[in-house]
Write a structure and sequence with these properties.
heterodimer, A: 179 residues, mainly alpha, 6% strand, B: 220 residues, mainly beta, five-stranded antiparallel β-sheet, 13% helix, globular
Chain lengths: 179, 220
């Protein structure tokens, strides 16, 4: 009898516990899903800007700078790099002085047209996008080394690699299959 | 002689900057991202075969040898974000985000971000999701959203081309100019690629946009 009585108490306690737990669960809102944040690690827009113009000590911080703050934080370093690369720099094929040229490239965004032909530079379009096939390195070498008409330092204004090693596709996804 | 002098100056100036490490367009450009899934190689933005569309190509993890490409993978903790300014102030008005999960690449946007700048959240819901194309697949797997956004994710040939080795030789003062013909340092190498083709109308542009590509690491 004593044992049966004890069992009843235990059973009652269990029911109460379960009921209480259920009640507790029912009365509380579902805990919110924690917000997951992602912090910037690398940045790229126009090709080779960080690589060519940013000194070693600034490369990581350049990658974690928003575009609007780049000219103020890195414009001076970038002009120094330009004039170190080409001490005879006057203007370039776009008619830009060193200050003007750095003024353009120091905000590292890729400009693109949404209404017409896209090209990094093709003689007519200037900075209206970047095609897979655009020889962006020759453009940049010419703008850094080529002087006002692009003819200065001819050994430094083209790497004479003018196309990709595999043909691109005429339709999506455009890039060639992997090697 | 003038050219040689310039080359020498370049060599002295940049020897400390470059340190002989293979870096190129944005490949391995900075210590913190080198050999990480966050390392960007290149961004491309161009008019699609359908001229009503604009194509964004976001490439990461460069200089993958064919033998290393099967093992290369997207990282579920690395968010890849294309930021788009459509009013000329160089602040993002729209973002297109992509993040890997369980064999698929999930794309968000284009959508106005909750906050601009260095810290992002996923701007749900998912616009379109595509299985990551495996290395060696016979053809690329693509998907298209109801709004007409077409996507691809997987390894591709690195579309970047440059005689980087000769450039290094010039910087080091070992050469005075490029060779003709040059030699493409990126020949035979692959990248982990995202391709997103977007109807232009979804970009809410008045004719010109400014675009930049970032990778973002999950904050643990």
């Amino acid at each position: 009898m004593k044992r049966k009585y004890l069992n009843k108490i235990i059973l009652a306690a269990m029911i109460l516990t379960v009921a209480f737990a259920a009640c507790k669960k029912g009365n509380n809102p579902i805990p919110p899903i924690p917000i997951v944040y992602y912090d910037q690690a690398d940045e790229a827009a126009r090709p080779a800007i960080n690589t060519v113009f940013i000194p070693a000590s600034g490369k990581d911080s350049f990658n974690t700078t928003i575009p609007t703050q780049m000219p103020g934080l890195f414009g001076g370093d970038m002009k120094t790099s330009l004039l170190t690369l080409n001490p005879h720099y006057t203007t370039n094929l776009l008619g830009l002085t060193a200050d003007q040229f750095i003024g353009v490239v120091s905000t590292d965004v890729l400009n693109a047209s949404t209404t017409g032909v896209t090209s990094f530079y093709n003689g007519e379009q200037v900075l209206t996008g970047r095609n897979l096939s655009d020889d962006v390195i020759d453009v940049e070498l010419t703008l850094v080394f080529g002087g006002p008409d692009g003819s200065a330092n001819p050994g430094l204004t083209s790497d004479h690699v003018n196309a990709n090693d595999k043909p691109f596709l005429p339709s999506f996804p455009y890039e060639a299959s992997p090697w | 002689m003038k050219q040689k002098k310039i080359a020498l100056i370049i060599g002295v100036a940049l020897a400390t900057t470059i340190s002989g490490v293979i870096i190129a367009s944005d490949h391995m450009d900075a210590p913190a991202v080198k050999n990480q899934t966050t390392d960007i190689t290149d961004l491309y933005v161009f008019q699609g075969a359908n001229t009503n569309n604009l194509v964004f190509v976001a490439n990461t993890q460069g200089l993958l040898a064919p033998s290393a490409t099967a093992a290369a993978a997207f990282d579920p903790n690395t968010l890849i974000q294309i930021s788009i300014d459509n009013n000329g102030d160089n602040v993002e008005d729209l973002v297109i985000q992509a993040i890997y999960a369980n064999g698929r690449m999930n794309f968000y946007g284009p959508v106005a971000p909750t906050a601009t700048g260095l810290r992002s959240i996923l701007e749900g819901p998912v616009t379109v999701s595509v299985p990551v194309t495996a290395y060696g697949a016979a053809s690329p797997t693509t998907a298209t959203s109801k709004s007409g956004i077409q996507v691809f994710a997987g390894p591709r040939d690195d579309p970047f081309f440059f005689d980087l080795n000769q450039f290094h030789a010039i910087l080091a003062g070992k050469a005075t100019g490029f060779n003709n013909p040059g030699s493409d340092t990126f020949a035979g190498t692959n990248v982990m690629s995202l391709v997103v083709e977007v109807p232009k109308v979804l970009l809410k542009s008045t004719g010109k946009i400014n675009v930049w590509l970032t990778t973002r690491k999950k904050v643990s």
